[in-house]
Specification:
Length: 380
């Protein structure tokens, strides 16, 4: 008898059915960076229907391509393996599914599929214990500073950047992200200098190159930005180039942030061991869910490195509040059209929900009206 059937014979709850959905959400504003445009958020939703009556939902996303591939991986290979499992065994299930897809790991599609399952399991776990996720995972902070990336895009003029950033400052945000990677370094300097002059020295400015530079250009631009008091330079080089990031850190005092394009905690370990970054930015969807995200955050803490996660603010607010070394939540609202709740913001801080579960209230009627795919997996 397979070991999971022995386990389930003693389980108080079992996963009886799995529902899969895809909902495509257009961005609220035009989003451009050094290498791409954000066309649509393909949102993949996975709901566990359990024998104890709890329905737990997790999710992941893409920025325009690959959603149907993630859905197919879940439908054909992962969701059927969940039927009959005990949802309390989060670690066992994550590891089983990871090795079941070992031929396609580590990579984005596999990690996104794992994240759908894992975030649903943690939603079940928090609901079953009547706790909000941030308290279940540690409850280290009751609020986390908030910066905005709902402006600052690469196509905007310096005047538009100044107007947007001043508005963000007036609204109470503690910082704002400005995309970099214009054709000539002087353009980036002019844009950043205009914004810095407008907002003053006490407002944090984050920059993001989206892996758009090679080694020499990254060093050149970092030197050109000296004196602007930047909070960090994000993804200056391809994520695979660990030694290039080491070299860059040796040539700049500006913190170097990486992580949104990494798909396993061991990739973060390599960066941290080699001193290749100042800040880690794990994306809970791209790293494979809450289980590896929390491990990565605690790993970074042992190196005295801050966590400032990428995107998915509705979920990251709870994860950041759970750990002591989370420094920022990134404000990019994207779930408003399919939820009945909003992330609470107070005086420039993100505040996690006190409701049991992930802290996200899904609007199922809105989801049904917009879904492009709907599948159910039962016991066969």
């Amino acid at each position: 008898m397979p070991f999971w059937l022995v386990e389930c014979a003693l389980a108080e709850s079992r996963i009886e059915r799995v529902t899969l959905r895809q909902v495509n959400l257009p961005p609220k504003v035009l989003r451009t960076d050094a290498i791409q445009s954000f066309v649509t958020q393909e949102t993949l939703l996975l709901t566990l229907h359990c024998s104890d009556g709890i329905e737990a939902t997790g999710y992941a996303y893409t920025i325009g391509t690959g959603g149907s591939s993630v859905l197919a991986l879940l439908k054909d290979h992962l969701a059927p393996l969940l039927i009959g499992r005990d949802p309390v065994c989060v670690e066992a299930i994550w590891k089983d599914l990871f090795f079941h897809t070992h031929a396609t790991a580590v990579g984005a599609i596999t990690s996104l599929a794992l994240a759908c399952v894992d975030t649903a399991l943690w939603d079940w776990r928090a609901q079953s214990q009547g706790l909000p996720l941030w308290r279940l995972l540690g409850g280290a902070q009751t609020r986390v500073p908030l910066y905005t990336t709902e402006g600052g895009w690469l196509h905007l003029s310096p005047a538009e950047l100044v107007e947007q950033t001043l508005q963000a400052q007036a609204e109470g945000f503690k910082g704002a992200k400005i995309k970099i990677g214009r054709p000539h370094v002087s353009e980036d300097v002019a844009r950043l200098s205009a914004v810095r002059e407008a907002v003053g020295p006490g407002f944090e400015l984050m920059t993001d190159a989206n892996q758009g530079f090679n080694r020499s250009e990254a060093v050149r631009r970092a030197h050109a930005f000296d004196g602007l008091g930047l909070a960090w330079i994000e993804e200056p080089l391809p994520a695979e180039d660990v030694s290039g990031h080491v070299q860059l850190r040796q040539h700049t005092t500006t913190p170097v942030a990486v992580g949104e394009s990494m798909y396993h905690p061991m990739q973060f370990r390599e960066y941290l061991e080699q001193g290749a970054c100042s800040i880690v930015q794990p994306d809970v969807a791209r790293i494979g869910g809450i289980t590896p995200w929390i491990k990565t955050a605690h790993l970074a803490e042992t190196f005295d490195v801050a966590v400032c996660p990428h995107f998915l603010m509705e979920l990251h607010v709870s994860l950041c509040a759970a750990v002591p070394n989370a420094r920022w939540v990134e404000y990019i609202p994207q779930l408003d059209d399919i939820t009945t709740s909003r992330m609470q913001v107070q005086d420039g801080y993100a505040v996690p929900s006190d409701n049991p579960g992930l802290g996200i209230a899904w609007d199922w009627s809105a989801i049904a009206a917009r879904q492009t795919a709907f599948l159910e997996i039962h016991k066969t």
